[in-house]
């Protein structure tokens, strides 16, 4: 039964892994074209991030979540730890460009795991047995992994692991969540999480264009804090 619930997530992780391996194989793209592709992808991420960010309904919650998440993430040194993990992966696979492995791992993990589909897809799979949204996400993530890995390298491959663990956790917890979280509250939570995720993806796009240099991973606690704030605000109303 659990294997059936995780089917969409398994395919999603496999699509990222396989596509990234293919992307690494086609890295002989001229530098000018490779740079243009990455710029095009960055611009697409910016547009996607903006579209997701405007779904938020309570901007006060978003501001508090981001600032609190930044403080907590900086204290926990999440960005530094993820980059250290990426550099460790670089040494294990014998790559000289360890920084690129770290950048590819961190950026692609955030891209694949912070969207609304990464939340709604596992919920649909668990509660309704519907994997169609995750299948759609798999095709999008696969194409993105192909493009990103052709530019940034093998680090994208390892993003399949946290994506699988993240979405599998949501799927396995979904039945318990459905038992005590009303549909209206769940919709509010998804809307605010999507907004935070959109802001993070927007920042990734700007980072890849070298417009800004934000330690995006340090903002990840915002995704947890926003849920707690939505629930708290709802109880006060």
From TrEMBL:
PANTHER family found in the cross-reference section: INNER MEMBRANE PROTEIN (PTHR36111:SF2), INNER MEMBRANE PROTEIN-RELATED (PTHR36111)
Keywords: Membrane, Transmembrane, Transmembrane helix
Name of a matching Pfam family: DUF554
Protein name stated in the entry: DUF554 domain-containing protein
InterPro entries, per the entry: DUF554
Keyword Transmembrane helix listed: yes
Sequence intervals crossing the membrane: 6-24, 36-53, 59-78, 99-123, 143-168, 189-210, 216-233
Top-rank taxon, per record: Bacteria
């Amino acid at each position: 039964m659990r294997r059936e619930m995780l089917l969409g997530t398994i395919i999603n992780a496999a699509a990222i892994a396989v596509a990234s391996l293919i992307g690494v194989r086609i890295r002989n793209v001229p530098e000018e074209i490779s740079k243009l592709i990455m710029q095009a992808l960055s611009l697409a991420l910016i547009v996607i991030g903006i579209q997701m960010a405007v779904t938020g309904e309570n901007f006060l919650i978003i501001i508090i979540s981001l600032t609190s998440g930044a403080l907590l993430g900086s204290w926990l040194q999440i960005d530094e730890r993820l980059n250290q993990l990426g550099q460790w992966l670089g040494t294990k696979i014998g790559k000289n460009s360890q920084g690129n492995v770290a950048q590819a791992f961190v950026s692609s993990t955030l891209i694949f795991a912070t969207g609304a589909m990464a939340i709604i897809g596992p919920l649909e799979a668990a509660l309704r047995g519907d994997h169609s949204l995750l299948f759609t996400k798999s095709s999008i993530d696969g194409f993105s992994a192909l493009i990103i890995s052709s530019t940034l390298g093998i680090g994208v491959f390892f993003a399949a692991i946290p994506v699988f663990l993240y979405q599998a956790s949501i799927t396995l917890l979904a039945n318990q969540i459905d038992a005590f979280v009303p549909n209206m509250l769940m919709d509010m939570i998804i809307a605010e999480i999507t907004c935070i995720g959109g802001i993070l993806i927007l920042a990734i796009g700007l980072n890849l264009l070298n417009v800004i240099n934000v330690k995006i991973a340090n903002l990840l606690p915002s995704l947890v804090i926003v849920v707690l704030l939505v629930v708290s605000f709802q109880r006060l109303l």
